Amino acid sequence: MRGGFTGVTFDVKKLIVGDGTNASTATAIVAAAGATYTLAASTNIEILTNGTLKLDAGTSGRTMIVSAPITGNGNLTVADIAGGNVIYSNSGMTLGGALTVNGALQVTGGGNRTVGTLARTANGSLALDGATDQVVVTSDYTNTGFGSGNTFNARAGISGSGAIISADMAAGRTNQGLSVNGGTATAGNTALNLNVHTTSSIAANGLTGTNTSDVANGDYRIQNTGTVTKIRGGATNSSATPDGRLSGVGISGGSVETATGYAATGIAAGGTSPNLGVTFTGSGAAGALSGQTVTVSDNFGESQELDITGGAYDLAQANAHAGPITIAAQHVGGSNTATVTVSNVAPTDATYTETLSGGLALTGGATGGSGTFSGITAGDPGTNVSRQVGVNTGTAGHITGTGVLTLKSDAVNSSGLGQTALLDQSFDIAGNVFAYAAATVSTSVTVAAQHVNGSERAAISIANTAAASGGYTETLSATMTTSPAATGSGSVGGLVAGAGPDTTSLMVGVDTTTAGAKSGTATVLLSSDEVMSSGLGSTSLGSSNVGVVGDVYNYAVGDMAKTGGSGTFSGTAQVGFNLDFGTILQNTGTYTANLGALNTAPAAFSDLLSGLFAITAGSGFLLTGFDPFSGLAGQGSHALTVALASADLGSWSETIKFTWNGSNTAIPVTGGGTYVGPTSDIFLTISGTVTDTPEPGILWLMASAGLLGWYSARRKVAKCA
Questions:
Q1: Could you say which of 58, 346, 594, 701 has the lowest number of CB atoms within 10 Å?
Q2: Could you give the CA distance from residue 106 to residue 2 in angstroms, rounded to a whole number?
Q3: What is the C-alpha separation between 51 and 74, in angstroms, rounded?
Q4: What is the number of other CB atoms lying within 10 angstroms of the CB of residue 394?
Q5: Collapsing DSSP states into helix, strand and coil, what is residue 701?
Q6: Cross-strand partners of 75
């Protein structure tokens, strides 16, 4: 229908469009050139199913005013006429089909206009003049100008203060719903919580992203909580300062619709969008993920805020135990230890640095404080864990073992990151263990028998009888003191284990200033001395008492003495002895002197004396006992008798050489045999005269005794003879 004359009004009472037989052909009402074409309110327009009515302003500058109610289930199209305008002022539009705005459509006069689908094309514009000019959509609202993501515009090409609402909104629905990580859809603000580990702390621990939660993925969905109208929309990153650690279709917005079909196909009533993913990568410093929001908008002007919350957490980090732990040198059975301190050296942040836990296990020759620990916070020396470790000191040697720290980083602040296994730390534990020297010392020593003032010595045997242990057994040293009657000197040093006894360094003797059975004690002071510059110094091993015994003998001493009888005895052993019978009268009998060859040494602990006699001149005497003898003990005497007969006149003199020496079977002799001392001679001169003329003194004595007559008679007889 076309208006042919300016100012002419068609008074159409009823306009029915479409019979369902030619759905592809639109029925057009075209405004005449230069005219304002009006479809009066008295006209009832009904567009049948499959029918399409096109309102066509005709050309630029024309206006078509439609004040008639439009009903039915068909479609209404505003033609794409640049500069033309279609004004619809009736509130009685209840169209079950689509209202397609290809050109300029102005809705005015107030009231709701209900359509099944509202479709604005690129060339169309829709002006909703007043706040009460609303379009209620029961099926779908599309707009080629929506855009996507942060550029989504539900009112692209829409002007005026009127609203486009869904039938669900008209029925009281206030918003679509958000469903986070598959949860129940909620209206209003909601939050997506994401927690990660920082990549810097992962690197500090030598881990890789595959071992840890350095990336957290979350998603949300948009739900159409209505029962009638499809919705379309976009997700806008509405953060004041977007956090560059967030990525993904759910935060960037730019590809939400393309990737998910949210705007392209919409969400049917009761349906949900595909998952809109958000990825939080834990680069940079630890701390809260704050101020990050996504605004989800739909094509009907509804919107909801999604808060992206969470934080980046630094993993705990244990102090490194690189290199061996050395235990100070010690002896077998020692208990030296070294301290293994486990600290959390991650950046200090009580909220965003995880705590350290783990355990210490010891293998090999390592001993000490194994076990578990937990709750070590970063930077707090009060929460360090110390363990004392050592080495097995049951045997000597270079003892080694291994300590293994199994480490874990434990979530804090209810982050949900759980427990993360960190790399184990292995470290060597080593220490030198030294065995004490062990001394075996003679319990007693017998010094060889000797003479007074002798210098015999005997060795104390000392040995380091500790087990050799590859250089880890200490050496033995000793010094010595002696008690009275024992003498000695010397020291031992550096006696190694297994080297055999030392029998030359500690020599002892006995006091030989006097004779006798001597006994005393040598006290051997023992020490175990460090080896391999261990720093252990010398350790006293106490002392060992050694009994020292030895016999000391007097030398035999030869001498002579007169024990009785006639004659005068004088002299010394050194210058010789004289036995002088003087002058005796002939035939007055035999004159006898008793002598002794003596051993004047003390009776006990003295050599035995042996002797023999040699007569060097004369033979006027009768000698008895001057035969060789031996075994004369100290203070012993060998009897000798010298007799002078008075029968023959004359002067008699005789020299006897007494050769003596000492012997002692107790005193050892090199090569064996019996000790025999040096020879010494004592000379004895015997003299006497036999006369027939008494000396004056003798005559006086004879007269006194009444023997003078006897003497005269004897002389007469002698002469006669």
A1: 701
A2: 21
A3: 5
A4: 11
A5: helix
A6: 52
Nearest 5°: CA angle at 214, between 209 and 220?
Answer: 125
β-strand partners of 596: 561, 639
Residue 621 CA neighbour count, 13 Å, CB half: 33
Which pLDDT tens digit goes with each residue over 299-348?
898 888 899 999 999 999 999 887 899 999 999 999 999 999 999 999 88
**Residue in the block written with tokens 């977007």:** 242
Closest CA to 501 of 459, 470, 564, 467: 459
Cα–Cα distance, 108 to 241 (Å, whole number): 41
pLDDT of residue 253: 52
Q: Rg of the Cα trace of the chain?
A: 71
Inter-residue contact 686 to 656 (CB < 8 Å): yes
Cα 347 to Cα 378, 474, 512: the distances in Å are 6, 49, 85
Amino acid, single-letter form, for residue 71: T
CA 688, 694, 699, 702: dihedral to nearest 10 degrees?
70
User: What span, in angstroms and rounded, lies between the C-alpha atoms of 501 and 184?
Assistant: 93
Q: How far is CA 366 from CA 326, 363, 391, in A?
A: 11, 6, 4
Place of tokens 């110094």: 537
Rounded CA-CA distance 607/552 in Å is 10
Q: Could you give the maximum distance between any two Cα atoms of the chain, in Å? A: 243
Q: Which of these, 465, 643, 463, lies nearest to 564 by C-alpha position?
A: 643
Task: Please tell me the total number of residues recorded for the chain in this structure.
Answer: 721
Structure tokens at 477: 């040293």
Angle among Cα 39, 43, 49 to the nearest 5 degrees reads 100
Cβ(523)–Cβ(482) below 8 Å:
yes
- Look at residue 502 in the predicted model and tell me its pLDDT: 96
281 neighbors 247 (Cβ within 8 angstroms): yes
- Helices (H), strands (E): how many in the chain? 7, 54
Q: How far apart are CA 588 and CA 690, in angstroms?
A: 9
User: What is the number of other CB atoms lying within 10 angstroms of the CB of residue 194?
Assistant: 27
Q: For strand 680-691 and strand 650-664, is the pairing parallel, antiparallel, or unpaired?
A: antiparallel
The candidate with the shortest Cα–Cα distance to 358, out of 311, 426, 417, is 426
Instruction: Select from 478, 470, 462 the least CA-distant residue to 531.
Output: 470
Q: How many CA atoms lie within 13 A of 26 on its CB side?
A: 15
Give the separation between CA 113 and CA 207, rounded to whole angstroms: 63
Residue pair 104/85 in contact by the 8 Å Cβ criterion: yes
